[in-house]
């Protein structure tokens, strides 16, 4: 089985969290955290696989992808509900499920493309900058003298 770099990073973060919780808390908390991390890892892997299949053209149209997307959430909700009913610690379960978030952010940051210093760009002193609102990604409406 081949792991994506984000999955490897998620495994490292989750393993560190489980180790720290085992040292600082109860074994039940640590096992709930590990269970949540496993659910998060399986959820991320299925989302990544389905997305790759959609963008490669294996899933024709969005119908099958949406069905798999919904089924993934139903299975995840059932697994979480069963775990909570069986006595899993809710905070630890959520922390384990959330370990994928920092892994995805750190992974996206480290795997970003290199900055091209020769890429075309406007001169910072170009007057065109005054006609564009970068926050809204639109042109600035001209201000009438009567409104001022």
Number of helices: 5
| Major sheet description | 2 strands, antiparallel
Q: What structural class do you assign from the helix and strand content?
A: mainly alpha
Query: What is the distance, rounded to the nearest whole angstrom, between the alpha carbons of the first and last residues?
Result: 65 Å
Backbone shape: elongated
Cross-sheet strand order for the largest sheet: 1-2
Instruction: Sketch the topology as an H/E string, one letter per element.
Output: HHHHHEE
Task: State which percent range the strand residues make up.
Answer: under 5%
Radius of gyration: 23 Å
Uncertain runs with pLDDT below 50, 5 residues or more?
none
SSE layout:
Layout: H1 5-24, H2 27-56, H3 63-85, H4 90-97, H5 100-110, E1 132-133, E2 138-139
Antiparallel strand pairs: 1-2
Helix pairs in contact: 1-2, 1-5, 2-3, 2-4
Task: Give structural notes.
The protein has one domain. Strand 1 and strand 2 form a beta hairpin. The protein is mostly helical. It contains five helices and two strands. The mean pLDDT is 87. The radius of gyration is 23 Å and the shape is elongated. A two-stranded antiparallel sheet has the order 1-2.
